[in-house]
């Protein structure tokens, strides 16, 4: 895929910005589509910014011109808010995704990569770790919409020969993650801890999640663009579960300060445990996370400190 142009829809975002840098470092020409352009320190000479609105077909059509691979990273909701207006979630995220797919087909895009959610599409799992062929019974609109787009991609593959790949990412954390939408437990906890504020824990702190560092996730997306095998859906996570209390203890170790806990009632949309089986990605994509947990936490803490000071 070298010397081709890849379009990253949502290129100014948390994951999108890291993906743009990773693609550029892999020798790709990158077109980053978003409402704003952000300065990126790595690979900037290969990254072209296309500013526009995801819901404007003309903006998307212009951005797609000449691109052979599309990475679709845009979502307007998060799991905690998606159930508040499920109709809006469907209208923006399913209909918006279908519009992008149709436009990509019209522009003869070679490959379509979709970022789905390994943390929500499965719902309450029947067994751990969760494989790609495990039942999918999401209990939040966010997961339902992600799964619906996956199914539409399969339909377009069967009926119009669209080459696609789906990566079901677990809980992302790392540099450039905003806390504005309340998503990203690790980054939210770091900000509160640095400010000396107590951290809020929903339930007893024993909810288990699989956390993946953003730069490792970006590497998985780069590898997915070159994947030519029969498997099209991959779990991308650490393959290890950590409770909320485990995360807090790791932050205390890195920040070298105690963190006060405030316990609140459990939330209905939180599944009790989610740990992904990543063996298929290892076998088919040649990918495994490379960054040590505490190293990733240290990198994230350093970035959050700088962000809060700026």
Provide key terms for this protein.
3-stranded mixed beta sheet, 310 residues, alpha/beta, globular
Structural class per helix/strand content? alpha/beta
**Biggest sheet, open or closed, and with what strands and sense?**
7 strands, parallel
SSE arrangement, N to C: EHEEHEHHEHEEHEEHEEHEHH
- Strand % is 15-25%
Which stretches are poorly predicted, pLDDT < 50 over at least 5 residues? none
Q: Work out the helix count.
A: 10
The number of E-state strands comes to: 12
The Rg value, from CA coordinates, equals 19 Å
Mean pLDDT: 94
List the strand order in the largest sheet. 3-2-1-4-5-6-10
N→C terminal distance: 38 Å
Choose one word for the global shape: globular
Helical proportion?
25-40%
How does this model look, in words?
With 310 residues, this protein is an alpha/beta fold. Helices cover 39% and strands 18% of the residues. The chain has ten helices and twelve strands. It has helices at residues 14-25, 57-64, 79-82, 86-106, 141-160, 185-194, 214-225, 244-255, 279-284, 293-309, and strands at residues 5-9, 29-34, 47-51, 69-72, 111-117, 164-169, 171-173, 199-202, 208-213, 233-236, 241-243, 261-264. Helix 5 links the parallel strand 5 (111-117) and strand 6 (164-169). It is globular. 45% of the residues are buried. The model has no long low-confidence stretch (mean pLDDT 94).
């Amino acid at each position: 895929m070298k010397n081709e142009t890849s379009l990253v829809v949502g290129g100014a975002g948390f994951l999108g910005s890291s993906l743009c840098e990773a693609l550029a470092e892999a020798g790709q020409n990158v077109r980053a589509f978003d409402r704003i352009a952000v300065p990126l320190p790595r690979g900037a000479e290969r990254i072209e910014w296309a500013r526009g609105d995801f819901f404007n077909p003309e903006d998307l059509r212009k951005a797609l011109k000449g691109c052979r691979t599309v990475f679709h990273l845009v979502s307007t909701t998060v799991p905690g808010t998606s159930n508040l207006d499920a109709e809006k979630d469907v209208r923006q995220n399913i209909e918006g995704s279908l519009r992008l797919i149709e436009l990509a087909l019209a522009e003869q895009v070679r490959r379509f990569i979709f970022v789905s959610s390994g943390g929500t599409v499965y719902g309450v799992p029947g067994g751990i770790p969760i494989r790609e062929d495990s039942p999918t019974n999401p209990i939040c609109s966010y997961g339902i919409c992600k799964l619906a787009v996956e199914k539409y991609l399969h339909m377009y593959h069967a009926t119009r020969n669209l080459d696609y790949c789906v990566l079901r990412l677990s809980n992302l954390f790392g540099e450039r993650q905003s806390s504005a939408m309340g998503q990203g437990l690790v980054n939210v906890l770091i900000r509160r801890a640095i400010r000396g504020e107590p951290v809020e824990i929903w339930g007893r702190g024993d909810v288990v999640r699989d956390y993946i560092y953003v730069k490792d996730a970006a590497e998985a997306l780069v590898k997915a663009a070159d994947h030519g095998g029969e498997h099209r859906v991959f779990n991308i996570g650490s393959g290890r579960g950590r409770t909320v209390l485990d995360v807090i203890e790791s932050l205390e170790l890195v920040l070298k300060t105690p963190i006060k806990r405030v316990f609140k009632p459990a939330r209905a949309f939180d599944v009790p445990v989610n740990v992904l089986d990543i063996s298929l990605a290892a076998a088919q994509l040649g990918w495994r996370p490379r960054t040590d947990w505490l190293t990733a936490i240290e990198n994230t803490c350093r970035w959050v400190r700088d962000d809060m000071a700026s």
